[in-house]
């Protein structure tokens, strides 16, 4: 997965609110590393951003369709282009660097390198008014509904290679498992969330996790196959340029894993 972390990092102790009138217990959470919006770019992190730009460039050359949507969303000159038009267009390293910068709220690569203020959502009404940096979203976390926290934690750690970040409640009713930059929240629900078999029949996904290379998605699939994981969909090439497979957990949650195709 791509390393999108910012250099200015701090630690916090996560906390989970009490849910339900009869819930009790105190959370004992380990320290979780998070990233703050970046005012400056240090050399090591700048190297990571350069690598990310090169990866975007490679994905464009390989016609990896998901990158077309990112290019169209961030670069104004591609705003009215279709996926095919974006992938057919000239796209150089400077364009990929601009994409990285704009995804972090900067006008361009030079502004990002110098740690300039993030570009505003609206034009400044008066020249003497300060520009507030645009808030930067650092990550997303899926929430999965499960029947038993312990059984779910066992599955994700023993079968899928995650580790338990925390478990909360007495009895436990909430928790989180992590692997690299991926985080999945687990929430106990005592009754069916979906009607009948619609989730499996329609392939309704609970989460999507990505890796950066073709080799990684293949190795991940083979490791899960060896572990005896149940697949809703085995490894396949998608028409939009991705390679995917879908895992079904003990509660029927469908987790899609994706990477670039050959």
Query: What would CATH call the architecture of the largest domain?
Result: Roll
Strand residue percentage: 15-25%
The biggest beta sheet is recorded as: 4 strands, mixed
Tally of helical segments = 8
The Cα radius of gyration reads: 21 Å
Q: What gross morphology would you assign? A: globular
The succession of helices and strands, N to C, reads: EEHHHHHEHEEEHEHEEE
> How many domain units?
2
N-to-C terminal Cα separation, in Å? Answer: 17 Å
CATH class of the largest domain: Alpha Beta
What's the CATH topology name of the largest domain?
2,3-Dihydroxybiphenyl 1,2-Dioxygenase, domain 1
Kindly name the structural category. alpha+beta
The name of the CATH superfamily of the largest domain reads 2,3-Dihydroxybiphenyl 1,2-Dioxygenase, domain 1
Average pLDDT rating: 80
Low-pLDDT parts are: 1-44, 121-127
Strand order of the largest sheet: 3-6-5-4
